[in-house]
Every structure is written in structure tokens, then in C-alpha cells.
Amino acid sequence: QEGADLTGVAVGLVPAEYYEKPGPRAYNRELPKRLVATIDARRAELLVVWPPRRIDYIRQTLQSLLGMDRALTGNAMEPGPEGYSRDTAMAENLLSWVNGPLKDRKVIVWAHNYHVLEDFFSPVIEEQARATGLPLAGPMGRFLDEALGKEMYTIAFLSHHGRSGWVDQEPRDLPPAGFDSIQERLHATGR
Predict the structure, then answer these.
(1) Cα torsion at 134, 136, 142, 144 (round to 10°)?
(2) Selection from 73, 80, 115, 75 nearest residue 94 by Cα
(3) How far does CA 58 lie from the centroid of its chain?
(4) Which of 97, 94, 17 is CA-nearest to residue 57?
(5) What are the φ and ψ backbone dihedral angles of 176, each rounded to 5 degrees?
(6) For 8, which DSSP code?
(7) Could you tell me which residues come within 8 angstroms of residue 181 by beta carbon, excluding any fewer than 6 positions away?
(8) 7-53, pLDDT tens digit by residue?
(9) What is the DSSP string of 50-113?
(10) Label partner for 91 (CA 20 to 30 A): which of 30, 140, 150, 178?
(11) CB-CB contact of 98 with 107 (8 Å)
């Protein structure tokens, strides 16, 4: 029944050939915008079939897709207009959850250390972003810190040993952890 209800709601939004010929196809950038607008306009109808949380989840997933599409226009490693990046989109997505359905709940987000930085990676990068008028540049943690302040705790993890690397670069060996380091102490526990 749910499939039939979804198909009924989707009439006019999805071409019939999508159902007749499944598989990869070109991405229609207008479709998520139309779906969000339809969810907003027909929310009362959707509430007859689905609980509010499910509707909100679908809507936010579409919003997140739109944010990532905006962030990844052109080269995925370069920020878009005004510095809008994957980190900007991730922050918007997370803030929509913690200010919406997860409000008043404790939330744990696990991300790479770069993404949870509460400021620019270096003063040089910050200066470049400000000089070139890119107010939306920087890591996700920068936007979360600005929005959540003391309501947020950031814990960065380090490695005792291993390899590290960036996208499109050869991994390199990490230097050994120092004798007094927390990594060495944790490693010594054998866990």
C-alpha cells in the first residue's frame, strides 16, 4: 500500500519511463527542488499516510542532496560560490537535525578531524578566505561552533601509528607517538 501511496503522490513529478526503465540516468537537478516544494505544499495529505518524522527525514535528505550538489559544482576539491563547500553543506544538514527532530537530545557525530575543526586549518587559509570574500569557507566545525557555542564538545582522535593521506595524494607513514603522549598511554593498555 505504501508504494501505491507514494506513486500517487508522485504523479506528475516523475516521468513514467523512470518506472519502466530502471537504472542509471542523468541527474535532474530540478527534481529535488520540486519534491521539497511538493512536500511543503502537500504536507497535510502526506500526514494522512506517513508520520511527521518520516516526512521531515525525506525532506531533509532532499535538502542535503541540494546542498551537496551546490557544494560540488565543478571540482569537488574547490569551494563553490562564496566558499560554499561540502563542509558547509554538512554543517547545514547537521544543524537542521539538532535544531529540529533531535532538539533537546544529545547527538554524537563522528567525522575526520579536519571536518570538526572549530576554525580555519591555518591563519593563511583564513586570510585567503576573507580576502577573496568567501564567508562560507572552512570546516564544518567552524559553522557548528558558531551556531552551537558551548552546547558542543569536540574531541579529536589521534593515531599511535599507521599511515595518513589526503585525497589524490600518496599516504605517508605517521611518525611514532611520543613517549609521554596520550596515544602511547592508550596503546600501552593493549586495547
Answers:
(1) 170
(2) 115
(3) 15
(4) 97
(5) -60, 145
(6) H
(7) 158
(8) 566 666 666 666 676 665 667 788 999 999 999 999 999 999 999 98
(9) S-HHHHHHHHHHHHHHHHHHHHTSS-TTS--GGG--HHHHHHHHHHHHHTTTTTTS-------H
(10) 30
(11) yes
Distance of CA 138 to the CA centre of its chain: 13
- Between CA 40 and CA 88 the distance in angstroms is 24
Place of cell 511527521: 52
Question: Residue 144's pLDDT is what?
Answer: 92
d(CA 66, CA 9) in angstroms, rounded, equals 21
Cell of 22: 530502471
Distance CA 164, CA 174 (A): 6
Average pLDDT over residues 115-141: 79
